[in-house]
Specification:
This protein is of the alpha+beta class and 407 residues long. It has helices at 2-13, 17-57, 67-70, 80-89, 152-158, 193-198, 204-211, 230-240, 249-252, 254-292, 294-302, 307-343, 351-356, 369-395, 399-404; strands at residues 60-63, 93-107, 112-120, 134-137, 147-151, 165-171, 177-188, 199-203, 219-224, 245-248, 345-346, 362-363. The longest helix is centred in the first third of the chain and has 41 residues, at 17-57.
């Protein structure tokens, strides 16, 4: 009997191809929209996290315990060379960079602005991400006099161009105010306006000479092979070097940690909203199908089909419709995510707004296979849920009244 109910359900699906086609297309488009929306949002968040961490944070940062609060250059890392060697020997380490730092005032003949000053080692610091964002001039080198790399936002604020001279003023290790003149060697333009406006890069030897400590290192950045393992690696470093402050990207940027932790939940919320719309679409179509077939269903009840079999037949019809539409939607969603995951989606029309939030203008959608599976299961559950009310209506039919209804 079960086999006959299944056969009858399958035949009923194709008795009205137009009506069934509407449901199949609705399921297909709903599945595609859900998967592609989830992939787009996932790629959006991954790009945001990756760009922010790569540009300015890194996975792990090490500083003197008092440097972070006071920004006083006298609090440098005393055993920096030992920590760097330890990090470089670890298999999980991909890049290690060490910088001297100061907070001061950038001045030009036209204006002034507060900036973070980074002293970089041109030979050792190979992971300096800002190099790829240089749009004018070149990376600072060892041959020119006091070169400086500035952001385009700072250049516009101070009215500086390539070759312009500017002055940096800051506190040295003794607490006195010092400063020096620099010449603009390059201008970078990242996706983050605040970064472009508030950070400048000079040679470490130039900055340390003005600070009064040629060996000063205030910040060691470590990039690892796995972002999610940064806390465990940081704990190992802290255990080995208890006299320094070891922070992960989660400690340095709590807003990124929140975004990372909420990413899965947000994806499923987006998917659930789309599935709710899909449920109402299926309920509407299946309810119409049941109402149109009232006389037929009454006849089936009159010749002996009991309530449970009538209920099962409507449920099976809905399952068949979903089974045809959902795989097509998953496949279509996978094609779109694969294609745009390679070429990207250009959002440069919204560049100004996105840059205010530190977000890139090209999004590469991505979605892992567990998401595909979970979305399929959610759609299957939604289809069964949406079939309950139309199927329940069949239980309320009285065979004699149903048969007479259209006579």
């Amino acid at each position: 009997m079960v086999k006959n109910i299944i056969k009858l359900g399958w035949k009923n699906v194709w008795r009205n191809p137009a009506r069934s086609g509407v449901v199949i297309v609705a399921v297909l488009l709903g599945t595609w929209a859900g998967i592609f929306s989830a992939g787009f949002f996932n790629g959006f968040m991954e790009d945001y996290l990756h760009n922010q961490i790569e540009l300015s944070i890194g996975h792990i940062q090490i500083e003197h315990p008092q440097f972070g609060d006071l920004n006083n250059p006298k609090f440098s890392i005393s055993n920096a060379d030992e920590i760097i060697q330890y990090a470089e020997e670890k298999s999980y380490t991909e890049d290690v960079s060490a910088k001297s730092m100061a907070t001061g005032l950038a001045q030009s003949p036209h204006s002034s602005f507060g900036v973070n000053i980074y002293g970089i080692d041109l030979e050792a610091d190979t992971s300096l991400t800002v190099k790829q964002y240089i749009t004018k001039g070149e990376m600072i080198n060892t041959t020119t006099w006091n070169p400086i790399l500035i952001g385009i936002e700072l250049a516009e604020r101070l009215d500086l161009e390539l070759g312009s001279r500017m002055v940096l003023s800051f506190q040295d290790v003794t607490g006195d105010i010092t400063g020096g003149a620099f010449r603009v060697a390059g201008i970078f333009d990242t996706f983050m306006n605040q970064f472009d406006e508030g950070n400048v890069f000079v040679r470490k030897s130039d900055l340390n000479g003005l600070l009064g400590n040629m060996n000063a290192i205030h910040n060691i950045r470590i990039d690892t092979d796995d972002l999610s393992m940064a806390e465990m690696y940081a704990a190992q470093i802290k255990q080995e070097f208890p006299d320094v402050e070891v922070k992960t990207w989660r400690d340095i940027a709590p807003e990124l940690r929140y975004s990372f932790d909420m990413m899965d939940l947000t994806l499923y919320i987006v998917m659930i909203i789309i599935i709710i719309g899909l449920i109402f679409s299926i309920i509407n179509t299946m309810l119409m199908a049941v109402l149109e077939r009232t006389r037929e269903l009454g006849m089936l009840r009159a010749i002996g089909m009991n309530k449970s079999r009538t209920f099962s037949m409507v449920m099976i019809e809905t399952v068949f419709l979903t089974m045809v539409g959902a795989p097509g939607g998953v496949f279509l969603g996978w094609i779109f995510i694969t294609y745009f995951g390679n070429v990207g989606i250009d959002l440069s029309a919204f560049a100004q707004g996105l840059n205010q939030w530190g977000i890139g203008t090209v999004v590469y959608p991505s979605l892992t296979w567990p998401y595909y599976l979970n979305i399929m299961l959610m759609i299957a559950a939604a289809s069964l849920l949406s079939a309950l009310y139309p199927a329940w209506r069949t239980l309320k039919l009285k065979p004699v009244q149903a048969i007479r209804k259209f006579n």
